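Objective 1.3, modelling of assemblies. Example input:
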Amino acid sequence: MKQVLAFEKPVIELREKIDELKKITQESEIDLTEEIKKMETRLGKLEKDIYGKLEPWDRVQIARHAERPTTLDYISILFTNFIEFHGDRYYGDDASIVAGIAKFKDVPITIIGHQRGKNTKENIYRNFGSPHPEGYRKALRHMKQAEKFNRPIITFIDTKGAYPGKAAEERGQSEAIAKNLMEMAGLTVPIICVVIGEGGSGGALALGVGDRIYMLENSTYSVISPEGAAALLWKDSQQAERAAKSLKITAPDLKELGIIDDVIEEPMGGAHRDLETQAKAIDKTITEALAEIKKLDVETLLDLRFDKYKKIGQFEEINPT
Amino acid sequence: MLKDFFSKKKKYASIPREEAKKDVPEGLMQKCGGCQKIFYQKELQKNLNVCPECGHHHQLNAYDRIACLFDDNSFQEWDENLISSNPLNFPSYIEKLEKDRKKTGLNEAVVTGKGKINGFPTAIAVMDSRFRMGSMGSVVGEKITRAIENAKDQGIPMIICTASGGARMQEGVLSLMQMSKTSIAIQRFHKKGGLLISIMTNPTTGGVSASFAMLGDYNFAEPGALIGFAGRRIIEQTIREKLPNDFQTAEFQLKHGQLDKVIPRQEMKEVISTILDLHQSGGNESETSTSV
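Predicted structure (tokens):
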């Protein structure tokens, strides 16, 4: 069963009709090629109309699409010789974060990413992609190892947020996230972060301090979920659509705010429509970024990383009275 | 008791006459949030807003906090002229800021600067939860980052007193990014050998607890302070379980290894100044060696 989003219904329906006509043409004597052609032109136009002007809430729906590619999907296409490693060495292994080493075009790298499932069973195993502290500590352990062996780090961000649970609090969720933010600032190897789905608050940011931050076109990055914001602001989580707009959480919004380096284009309708094409676009972006960053000496790299974050924020300076 | 059933009970509450109400000026008395006893506000203030009966720590505003930590007239404020804009054009944000500015007399939810604690020069950032619940937007992030940078450049220790509900929603992801901004500044401060002391006060949650609050060389808290990442209600909804009363208190965090010490307000200055003293020689040596 394919998941159909409300706003793309006209496209899906028209496409189904075209398929039907094609079937009729094939199976019977009636030639409908003319009609099909016409309808295909109409489909092309309709797709452009709908996918060309996506509202923030539409993008939220695409970012949350059940079939949206996950970290492991991209790993299998982008890298070779991937070996996943487990555990934080303090408490356990958190399946909502995957980490390991692989080759990216003959260069050894470390990969760390949030991992959600695509069905209920997988999601229960992956805790819906919401990490506990041990997930962040596993991530940090791999980052430190990357630094030791001088491997660039690539992170994939895809989480609704750090898990809001009792055990997570008892084991220091705050400390785990805070420590990652601080430690990532000082890592002497290049860090490239790509938001591939939802970038939910501190739980996303804990894998998101780097030299380049990219977002897939329909991914989101937010301090609070649109539903959460709507509940707080208007006491009504039904107003999520309005909140999604106000919060400025889409990739184009973040580019405009100067928070991310670039938006990586998605295939028409979203990454799930064409994983190969999407992976190629990510590949190109990472390749170019690594080539640029590789030229920098460590001190410059770290200074630029600091400057990058230091300039984020908007405020006014008034004359002291 | 059956007997009680027959006894006459007052079915009405006594409401003081309007004139009687006026006899007690507003702000003269205050009910303790812990034991519910009523005190003269002056009495509480004299005791640093700590209940003399039950020890409950009430909110302390930024300047009172500075006064109870720093030597008299030694404090010099930094960057008080930074004010929030409305980067996302968020509905009614400007009005809310204006209201809190009037209410508190502060420009933003944090006061930064430097002064002396028992003679030791120290930089400080103190959050004030009366201003937008102490939430962190661009200005809070910028002021704290600048303060850390100043402390690093001047080679003096840094104290951060937190009191915050977390990131400021009205500035969206810009406020989220203040977590990384401040954390990177702290990383550079630590790398240079700086001493960072974190004092968490009620409440320290969300994006503030998950960034600079937890990054001190020493992480302290006041008794009873609420400290945690996610809110109690959200956790209860997620795990479908009632949480214990002491959940996410300073004492809970101490027990779970997240704090170095819980320190009552009256003892704070002494403990801090002892720590500053213990870091004097070490700090100075590394300072001279790095400046060569």
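Chain B has two domains: 28-58, 60-291.
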